[in-house]
Amino acid sequence: MGLRKDFLWGGAIAANQVEGAWDVDGKGLSVADVATYKPKVDVKDYRKQVGVTTADIDAAIKTKDTADYPKRRGIDFYHRYPEDIELFHKMGFKILRLSIAWTRIFPTGEEPEPNQAGLAYYKAVFAKMHAVNIEPIVTLSHYEMPLALATKYNGWADRRVIDLFVRFCQACFTAFKDDVKYWLTFNEIDSVTRHPFTSAGIIPDQTENLLQTEYQAFHHQFVASALVTKACHATIPGSQVGCMLTKLTDYPNSSDPRDVLASFNKNTMNYFPADVQVFGEYPALVLNYFKEQGIEITMAPDDLAILKANTVDFVSFSYYMSMVSSYDDSNLTLTTGNTVVGGKNPHLETTDWGWTVDPVGLRISLLQLYDRYHKPLMIVENGMGAKDKLTTDHHVHDDYRIKYFKEHFEQMIQAVDAGVDLLGYTSWAPIDLVSASTSQMSKRYGFIYVDEDDLGHGSLNRYKKDSFTWYQKVIQTNGADLS
């Protein structure tokens, strides 16, 4: 059968990883602006890479440095977006996933009125996209909540953040109702327990019971997502609102039933945040887990009714790798993945950052998600970080990247042929950017090379890699020609 004729091919970026201009036009500090480049920490030790303390935050607030805080500079998409969008257009993009930085609209999250300069910036970005027939899909929270809400309220641990987020989103819906049809509420919402500060503004050393606080923050985000979904549908007729899950596909390490059970439990907890947003209720197994762990979620009287009445229209997800689980971790060789540590599958190769490469896992993930949710799916992140080399004549010969995508697209198409309703695919990322976990530029994902190193040195010139032309052909043929 192949992909639908209106399949949405494109790429995905995040404001905090590309825009730069961290203190321009009234923007406030976000949690991303205090993320540091840590060259002395192993890139495979993600816990230390994303870890943050109160002292770290205090030091970051006092400095205007961008060398050690790479997300403050990004790749200067803030000023270069016309050039970058033109390059995306030349590749043939139908859609571009991007995020709106909350602190460009409400610098601390509590201003009485939105920052007009921030609204004007995104209005101009969307106008440029529409001028070249690229549809936006906008993430409203992509690891960039106001730092002020983290330091004042401990982020999403405090219920007051719900109303502040809904107000931000409503300002976006009102301003961009003619520009954006597709919206995502929270990026990789399941990640709160993996990096609570990045995802939810929770400062661990100011938190007495971290696990309790993380799941309370989950609940506040679920309620906010439901309210935002309701507001979007009311403000923008015909709009589509999706949830976004990190698909951490996990296999049993062996046929030992205890390994099968360990893998089942891990997958169950991975699905849980999407379950709430799709079905509008907490899964029974998760409620029992809360009971066993002594976790008590404080809810307002109407919360469960709000969740049930305002479920999402489609399910989007990131997929980069798979892992294996065992009842006994001593049976495993551990490796890293997308901000997670787990068992390494001996049948699979890994990237330089330890992430397993599992194209068949993408097909499995699509089949699992569609079978579970019966809603349209969208792959909104998939790709590989690699150490690209720019030649003296400004080329990057990245056959390894072409091979990666070719194998994943083959499996993606087979899942569609099996009956999966897939709306689109956006690669992570179409252009080199600052890595979310390690704050590196040398971990390159793009079809477009950006001349910038880990310390911010370089011309910022953009150069097409070999994969640029290949992806262009894939889009032109709607996936029929992967040669």
Topology:
Blueprint: E1 8-12, H1 15-18, H2 46-50, H3 54-61, H4 77-91, E2 95-99, H5 102-105, H6 116-131, E3 135-141, H7 147-153, H8 160-175, E4 182-186, H9 196-200, H10 210-235, E5 240-246, E6 249-252, H11 257-279, H12 284-293, H13 303-309, E7 314-318, E8 322-325, E9 334-336, E10 341-343, H14 359-373, E11 377-381, H15 399-417, E12 422-428, E13 448-450, E14 462-464, H16 466-476
Parallel strand pairs: 1-2, 1-12, 2-3, 3-4, 4-5, 5-7, 6-8, 7-11, 11-12
Antiparallel strand pairs: 9-10, 13-14
Helix pairs in contact: 4-6, 8-10, 10-13, 14-15
Description of the molecule:
Helix 8 runs parallel beside helix 10. The two termini are 19 Å apart. The strands form four sheets. The protein has an eight-stranded parallel β-barrel, surrounded by four helices. The protein has a two-stranded parallel ribbon with strand order 6-8. Strands 9-10 form a two-stranded antiparallel ribbon. It is 40% helix and 14% strand. It is an alpha/beta fold and 483 residues long. It has a single domain, classed as Glycosidases (TIM Barrel, Alpha-Beta Barrel), CATH 3.20.20.
Question: Which stretches are poorly predicted, pLDDT < 50 over at least 5 residues?
Answer: none
CATH topology: TIM Barrel
Q: Biggest β-sheet, characterized?
A: 8 strands, parallel, barrel
- CATH class identity: Alpha Beta
Q: H/E element string?
A: EHHHHEHHEHHEHHEEHHHEEEEHEHEEEH
Can you count the helices? 16
Query: Over the alpha carbons, how many angstroms does the gyration radius reach?
Result: 21 Å
Tell me what the CATH architecture is: Alpha-Beta Barrel
* Corresponding CATH superfamily: Glycosidases
| Number of DSSP strand runs | 14
Helix content: 25-40%
Our count of domains comes out at 1
Task: Give the terminus-to-terminus CA distance.
Answer: 19 Å
